[in-house]
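Form P-L/3: holo structure prediction, ligand zinc ion.
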Amino acid sequence: MTDTSTSAASATTASLAINTPRRFYRGGERILAFRGLSAPEDFDGYRPEDWIASTARLFAEGGGGVSTLDSGTALPEAFSSDAAGWFGGAHVARFGGDPNLLTKLLDSGERLPVHSHPSRQFAAAHLDCDHGKTEAWIVLVADPGATVWVGFRDELSPDELAELVDAQDERLLAALNPIEVTAGDAVLVPAGQPHAIGEGVLILELQEPTDFSVMLEHERFGLELDHAFLGLDHQVALESVDHGPVTADRLATLRRRWVDVEGVGPALPDEAAPFFRAEVVHPVTGDVSLDAAYAAVVVVDGSGTLSSTDGPRDVAAGDVLLVPHSAGEVTVSGDVTLIRCMPPAPDRGPRLSSPRRPRTSRPRR
Ligand SMILES: [Zn+2]
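OUTPUT (holo model):
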């Protein structure tokens, strides 16, 4: 018998290299700057997303996105070989080797199209997948006046929605709630809510691990209709969209200031808990100790040290680490701010129908 605790495949804290599949919209320079990297010679300006600890794949555009460890092992393989080490027993009992989370850095070099993502219920019914895509934005950098949009201000009938989508003009964006954002803001975007991200923000994004998007605005981005509507009948795809209204009071419940946390505290509104967790760690009055957990850790400011059973590790702004449950309690010290991105607690997340296999977002064809 092989002793898996000493095999090369055992879970251990790892730095994650940049992972930026080509996308249909511009961006990526703010990711390079944040990561402290210079632009590679072949940088084409269409690398707006850094997929962190990803087992998910792009729905179209080449199907890339899966992360690879520096050892050369693709992350789904690493997770299969030591699921308990990576995730801990309670997570595995509920979700198997599925991390149940996708984390990204996203740099909007131009405004993104108005789009929405299906709920778990819709994905299960129409896309053969347990995951929908509720997502959340943790704003790290924002140009002055940077704006995001979430939810229709006024309720639309199904016909009115279909008409707006048919027209493919500026009225679609104009029907949404604009939200001016600054660094330090966080916004939760529940599945179904139409949304857009304006030009000039770098966000840390947490989401359910799929790439299902209904691209309500598609023409000006040159997207094929099959891509825009997830290969579904257009009317069926539009049934996944929330018709509103999203009131000012409702919007307020979807927002939080993450930058004000001292010590350790949540980055996101409580409503995010069934989908993912994001914890801000900012040791102000002494070291902070964190319970063992699988986490994608993004160092957003300063520098300091992370200590665990995997040893001490100096970290600085721009570092991205994958910390396994087996690293045990993690102590954070120094003048540093980091965000710990984690799956939902096992008693809050969904039951998955095939909990032993990590899944990609690809629907069976
Ligand atoms: Zn989105």
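COMMENT: Residues 1-365 form a domain with the Jelly Rolls fold (CATH 2.60.120.10).
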